[in-house]
Amino acid sequence: MSHDNEISNKSSNTVFAEILNKRLSRRTVLAGGLATATTAFFGSMTSAQAFGDKGNVSRGSDHKHPLIDFIPVEVAEGNGPMPAISPDYQYQVIIPWGEPIEPSGPAFNYPPNAKDQAEQIGIGHDGMTYFPLKKGKFKRGGNKNGMLVINHEFGRNTHVLGKSDPDSLEDVRTSQHAHGVSVIKIVKRDGSWKTAGSKNTRRIHVNTPVAFSGPVEGHELLQTPNGNIALGTVNNCSNGKTPWGTYLTCEENFNGYFGANNTENLWNATEEQDRYGFSENGFGYGWHKFDRRFDLSDPDYKNEENRFGWVVEIDPFDATQKPVKRTAMGRFKHEGVAVTLGKDGRAVCYMGDDQRFDYIYKYVSAESADEMRKRGISPLDEGSLYVAKFNEDGSGDWLELTINNPLLQARFSDQAEVLTYARIAADLLGATPMDRPEWTTVAPNGDVYCTLTNNSKRTVTDAANPMAPNADGHIIKWRDTENHTGLEFQWDIFSVAKDTHGTEASYSDPDGLYADPDGRLFIQTDGGQKDGLNNQLLVADTNTGEIRRLFTGVTKDEITGLTMTPDRRTMFINIQHPGNGDPSLTNFPEPFDGTTIPRDCTIVITRKDGGIIGS
Ligand code: FEO
Ligand code: CA
Ligand code: CA
Ligand code: CA
Hints:
This protein is mostly beta strands. Helices cover 11% and strands 29% of the residues. The structure holds MU-OXO-diiron and calcium ion (3 copies).
């Protein structure tokens, strides 16, 4: 299961949306207009025009050439058990699931055992960041030598263990060690990339000691009667990187790893557990059958589940530092986080909560990130958390999740509770339920984009979610007042996936998203594509709306994760769950043979002429 099929938001916000705002707005008219477009263009509303400026996006490359100039992968080529790439580009496969994180580590054997898996690349390759290493004054070295930090979101038992259910704690440990994060060193030698040894190489998984910081640190909601120390991170979906050189990994569908043995029939989900989707069987991983920590009905481990659902900061250059869960950023199903510096140098973080009818959030540090760091305070520990309300007229409001609000005071006793149950606080504030917010990205001109991947359960539209049901998703964008720190924004819809169907720009289920410094928007997909396509990577020109297909993956995979070298001439993306783990569909990265187990892996993409990626 790649996402949670349930609806956890039973608040009245969905009902409000149904009662209010039925009138046709400018927004829905725009969406309708787009529906008639038959070309690869989005219509005339570019980001620059929508916000009334001159579109003065800085272009790092050549003004004389169009932003996108490559020959696309044609619709007819983008299917089957092997990837396809633009004829102007080439790719190399690296770090498949099970490869040792150090060249000297244990080789992959299928199925893996728990001990080896803890020293091997995990499964479910997802968000990642390349951190360049520069030696002395050899500055270009950073383009061939770096730390790669990569999320391992999930792997089904059938894929990881070769069976549906674990039979032992050893099986559970193997599954747990396949999840988490890898920190590895990669270098380019003789034209190809490979792992290299480093004292900072490490695996972080479900049993790695972690620390908490921010308002919830030390709070009773994070303490268990057993007194067990805080361990691990799980369902690490997308990611972010901070201006101060650290990695942020985001815990998404953490609820699915918990279950309840409920031998004494005492466990019923609390209101809070229900809002976060905890259930007796979870997603079927069965960890709770052998590892008490994941048994919701075990009174010794009460509150263990509150230790998951956070943004976690990792230092890629110091393996002795524990991963730190930054509680000020709230607890929900964190898809990813886009970090930028706003007014007064404050850190601003945009975040999606990926579930049907859940919300988009923003965190703003209390002061300049630089100043806070000079005083030894993390900018991610002291600040304000907001949730988005999209109004029908194209304006929007950021509503603060603060215990000082009487609405929240009536429900919660302190700020720690507000943050731990951020979803419930957001319900009370009247946030806008969205069609599964996935990645966010900040463009240099100030536009923020967010993918809304789909929502098959929507029955009534609102202006920001204008399709019911929304089978194929859309991409929304907004611009905040006060250089990202303000409480208001103007928003618009950038792209509606179904409008591309039947054209050469066909895509569905947008998920991964990256705005480059020149005005390109990279779009990755996760879901059933139309027109016979596998999941894919596309590049949009945000000035013209044109979209071209750069890469397609393999049968039943997902394309996700995106990072580049500083010169933007090497890009890394991931093929996640090829064939959903079924070797009769694909054996990628091996050529098709019908039997070899397919393995999640990273794809290194370069232009054949050495040009900027996306051009
Ligand atoms: Fe892990 Fe919402 O994708
Ligand atoms: Ca996924
Ligand atoms: Ca995703
Ligand atoms: Ca997705």
